[in-house]
Amino acid sequence: MTHLHHVDDRGEATRRSLARVCLTIVLVLLFLPAPEAFAAYIPSFISLPGEQALPAPAASGIAFQHDPGSTGLQDLWFSRWSGLPYALAGGDGSQVSPATSERLVAYIDRADFSGDPALATGSLIVVDQASGRRLTVSDTATFKASPSLFRDTAVWADGLANRDILAYDLDADADGETDFLEASPPPPPSPITLVGGDEDQSQPSLGERGLAWVSTAGSQTSVLYRPDPAVAIETTLCVSAGTSKPAPCISGDLVVWTEVANGQSVIRVHDIVDGTFSARGDGSAWNRDPTTDGSRVAWTASYGAGPSQVYLSSSEGTVVVAPASYSQGSAKFGFGALAWEDTRLTAGGEADVAFVPLDWAQPSRLPPLTASASLVSYAYPATLRGILTDHEGESLAGRRVELYASPDAQAWKLSGAALTSSSSTSPGSYSFTVRPTARTHYEIRTSAASGHEETRSPSKVISVRAYLSRPWTYPSTVRRGSRFYVFGYLKPRHSGYTRLYFYRLVTYRRAGRTYRTWRYYTYRYARNYNYSSYTRYKLAFALRYPGYYYVRAYHYDGSHAATWGPTRVFYAR
Question: Which pTM was predicted?
């Protein structure tokens, strides 16, 4: 069995097929206001050749099964919220049943088989979707199913006829880091049995408030709950669910599952905190596969031979997520999104992955800054201006914006803050006055607030000339052939030397006329002497010819633009 970060031959064929037929992969996120208006959401789709199944949202995207259709095997794929899908795992068998935490994806890697795929043994593997690094949690020759991840703990059902619930601690040294992603990982622990015994344990779901699972004895299927997964003190939430697949899901304060009685199925909801039970679902539909994010509940409802639909229930009521023209199912909450299988793009054929944001903040927009000048003198003022808008271009007034400055666009430091304008003439506008003393990159940032994401503007560079004083001579009377001194100041401090250029006033005749002009004479390097915040330079020099001269300083370095200082005219006797 092989585990590849890059897809194998089947995946390569898939990519070639995808490029050849140019199937559209829709990955545009549509940010709409609130879950109560959820029926108005237009989902985004992930569409590949073949069929997609069992989407599982993570913090940065969605993991899902992909069946290219040619082999009958499934690969594990991942699609970032903004980006193209890619194969996360492939091999000789099938990679199925993805479960996600913030950045990890757990899945079952089933080996080659020739019979019933449900009987195939396999390994439980956890992969970091960002780096592709993976860990084989359990490779025993047993059937594994229903993995669930919460933070750094994985649980799954292990066995075939009489299964146990096993767990694996991905942070065994309790240092807050996932062990197999560390540079020097500690020795891996062994999986532990959370729930065993004579009964069949299956369908585990792990959440912040504990573990929910299914226990089957004969024909009776019960839903159980433990506040502490490692402590064998549990509560029976449902004595007889009436179905072999209650599919419990726990998140936040809620546990949800499917319950069948008198030929009708409902979605049962248990509030762990207040101990209450309630039901969701239309009594005329077959309700199944519930999921919850701790405050909302979604499930699939089937109406006879008609297409199935995904419903969402919140404090605002119950709405249909997607139209009933074609079937949807296998909904899953995760990290502010709801994803499900959807066949509308294929007119009822192979399923794609559909998803919508629920709690995602809307993006703000910060167009590039404008500056009153791109080159200024040392410590002279420049004004930076801009405007803050939402993703649709509407101005955002009264929002805090922060100005950051950096000499190299790497190390940023807060330089100022302001509120965007609320005036009717220029809403959302802002301005900052800066006095840079060296070449500086500036950018604007906004914090995540008021339903909008943290945002950063493109950086704006302002170049700066150094400060060079007018040089002076000592003594004030310069005599040719005698040493005199030239002094001046440079800001900022700069070690080494300052270049001084000398020009001489010369007289010449041309075509019977007399002309006088300044002609370059020579240059010298004056030694720099550093003080607290500036540099003083000094040059000892002697002139060979009498007459008028002027001297000026020149400076250039990586943080300052080429700068000529003012001139000093003097006479050499």
Answer: 0.60
